[in-house]
Amino acid sequence: MDGKVQELLNTQINKEFYSAYLYLDFSVYFYDQGLNGFGNWFKIQAQEEQAHAMLFLQYLQNNGVKPELLAVDKPDKTFDGTIDVLKETLSHEQYVTSLINNIYDAAHNAKDYRTMQFLDWFIKEQGEEEMNAGDLIKRYELFGNDAKGLYMLDSELGARTYSAPSLQL
Ligand code: FEO
Predict the structure, then answer these.
(1) Is the dihedral of CA 17, 19, 22, 28 positive or negative?
(2) Which of 80, 96, 128, 143 has the fewest CB atoms within 10 Å around its CB?
(3) Which helix (H) or strand (E) covers residue 38, if one does?
(4) Angle, helices 147-158/113-143, rounded to nearest 10 degrees
(5) What are the b/e assignments for 47-80, b being 16+ CB within 10 Å?
(6) Is residue 55 a contact partner of residue 169, using CB atoms and an 8 Å limit?
(7) pLDDT value of residue 78
(8) Collapsing DSSP states into helix, strand and coil, what is residue 92?
């Protein structure tokens, strides 16, 4: 595997675990606020990110590369209130999209078609993650300022359950 592609894929394991840690931090914040549904939504989001990390790890192993596990940073976002957290989520997903695109560029330059195909799933997934984060902002802006609306939104987010990624390696 091309050295640059390999390095970026390895770094992405860490970025995905950082994403998990960040969303777990948001989850902890919401549980502390008594918004258990939001807390649940972000806890499941954290599980998804861990699954993404494992896919990058498995992909490297499947291609004969030994992954190197790097230190995961402490979540460092500062936020003041629900809307801040939701906006941080969207901007973080946009950042992750830029990372995936960057790996795709490197794979394309190296004519690494297998990695490009592997990344296709993540490109689609990032579209969904940005859409979900954007929808959450819109719905919070519509309903979040009303106690009853917020209660219903929180209840709905509390019903989210985890399902493993559709990508199998
Ligand atoms: Fe693994 Fe939310 O991107």
Answers:
(1) negative
(2) 80
(3) helix 36-62
(4) 150
(5) bbbbbbbbbbbebbeeeeeebeeeebeebeeeee
(6) yes
(7) 85
(8) helix
Question: What is the CATH class of 3-158?
Answer: mainly alpha
Asked which of 16-20, 50-54, 75-79 is least confident by mean pLDDT, the reply is 75-79
Q: Is 129 in the pocket of ligand 1 (CB under 6 A)?
A: yes
Per-residue DSSP letter, 165: -
Contacts of 153 (CB under 8 A, 6+ apart): 37, 139, 140, 143, 144
Alpha-helical runs (H) found in 63-168 = 82-109, 113-143, 147-158
Closest approach atom of ligand 1 to CA 52? 1
For ligand 1, say whether the CB of 49 is within 6 Å of any of its atoms.
yes
> What are the Cα distances from residue 44, in Å, to 29, 37, 75, 100, 119?
14, 11, 17, 21, 22
Rounded distance, CA 44 to CA 163, Å? 9
